[in-house]
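TICKET: design request
STATUS: open
ATTACHED STRUCTURE:
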């Protein structure tokens, strides 16, 4: 398999492992945005979040929390992208933990929010809820 994260899971590519269990692997990013930038991944291969069975996601947030606590990060981002136009570069679900120690280091975000039409927002809410 050519997935770089699957190769890291198999031990074919070395990594700086922070945590490993049967379902989850966490390691330091080798192209960090800031010191302590880590990745937490399910060992189950899937390109997008909806591709991963729930039981393979159950450790992700607790592991992220353990790394935050152990690293001493005070301000940080947790980022998870799905699809190339959403800036996903590796087609294997992964969560970034990116410490934000100051204004210049870490993740920078532009947020282009718009005023929502409340009637359309209500209809969208009902539509999504009906499919859950």
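STATUS: resolved
RESOLUTION: sequence designed for all positions
ATTACHED SEQUENCE:
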């Amino acid at each position: 398999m050519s997935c770089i994260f699957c190769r890291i899971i198999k031990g074919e590519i070395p990594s700086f492992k922070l945590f490993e269990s049967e379902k989850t692997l966490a390691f330091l990013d080798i192209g960090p945005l800031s010191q302590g930038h880590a990745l937490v991944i399910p060992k189950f291969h899937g390109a997008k979040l909806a591709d991963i069975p729930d039981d393979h996601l159950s450790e992700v947030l607790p592991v992220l929390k353990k790394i935050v606590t152990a690293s001493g990060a005070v301000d940080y981002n947790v980022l998870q992208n799905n699809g190339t136009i959403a800036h996903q570069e590796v087609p294997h679900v992964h969560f970034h933990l990116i410490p934000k120690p100051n204004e210049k280091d870490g993740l920078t975000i532009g947020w282009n929010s718009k005023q929502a039409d409340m009637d359309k927002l209500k209809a969208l809410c009902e539509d999504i809820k009906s499919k859950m």
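CLOSING REMARK: The domain at 4-130 is CATH 3.30.428.10 (HIT family, subunit A). Residues 118-130 form the longest helix (13 residues).
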